Amino acid sequence: MITLNSSPIHAVSWKLADELSVSIDIKRDDLLHPVVSGNKWRKLKYLIEDARSKQSQHIISMGGNWSNHLHALAFVGNELSINTHAFVRAHKEQSLTPTLNDCQQWGMTFDFTSRKEYAELRQERTWDRYHEQFPNSYWIGEGGFSELAIQGVKDIACDVKKEYDYIFVGCGSGATLCGLAQAFPSSRIVGVAAFSGAEYLQPQLKKNIATELDNWTLDTEHHCGGFAKAIVELEELISAIELNNDFKLDTVYNGKVFYALKTWLESGKLPLNSRVLVIHTGGLQGTREV
């Protein structure tokens, strides 16, 4: 069993926001679990239930060298005695990252793919796609993106009693953005892309968010050079935010959310007295060097 902790909402101490009369809160989904934190568990929980209901003995998925999704999936698979396998966008000759080392220790096996092969895997949609290669298996797409993952993210609304004008969140596969847009139709949801070239997500997001909802924005300008890339300004901002608050940020997702939020504040895109909620999606394991 996976035992979860609470995910409180705290006020963010930030002089810039105070000076511009914008209130910012943060939902601490990073506290949900030491390993399966943030939106990783929310996206996986109904998928795992579905896999078990289908008596699947093997879960197959995909991700990169520092994939929080694979990290969470490998841990859950180990805890629930379900075999896991991943198609990884990396060269098989290179050393495993700390993320993949953890995955391997939890029993996950790998196939290493080229960028072209990896892009083709994004088109796989059916849960039983790999039955021939892996009997009784269950396929989960990149980042867990699926209707069941979106449903899991929508459960966040049960924890949020206050109304917010804007909700900011890091964006990888887009499942969390879709879920939040559906769960909070009266808020403007801003998904901050963690990687360059995220524009390709737009059609997928439109397809998976109800057509009558136009309450979301995909911010593609604050990836800082690409996935897991960082710039000095980002690192300085993270240090400043952490100095005055009791939460940690990573340079992969959550730090970039605050970097985007800083730009929105300075450019006046957030009106006076705006109420903003940041969803901390966890994944701090990606900041490790060993």
Number of helices: 10
Estimate the helix proportion, in percent: 25-40%
The shape, in one word, is globular
Beta-strand share of residues: 15-25%
**Structural class based on helices, strands and sheet pairing:** alpha/beta
**Fold-level CATH name of the largest domain:** Rossmann fold
User: Per CATH, which architecture of the largest domain?
Assistant: 3-Layer(aba) Sandwich
Mind telling me the CATH class of the largest domain? Alpha Beta
Tally of individual domains: 2
How far the N terminus sits from the C terminus, by CA atoms, comes to: 28 Å
Number of E-state strands: 10
Which stretches are low in confidence, meaning pLDDT under 50 for 5 or more residues running? none
Order of strands across the biggest sheet?
A: 1-2-10-7-8-9
Alpha-carbon Rg, integer: 18 Å
Helix and strand element order: EHEHEHEHEHEHEHEHEHHE
How does the major sheet shape up? 6 strands, mixed
Q: For the residues shown, what is the average pLDDT?
A: 93
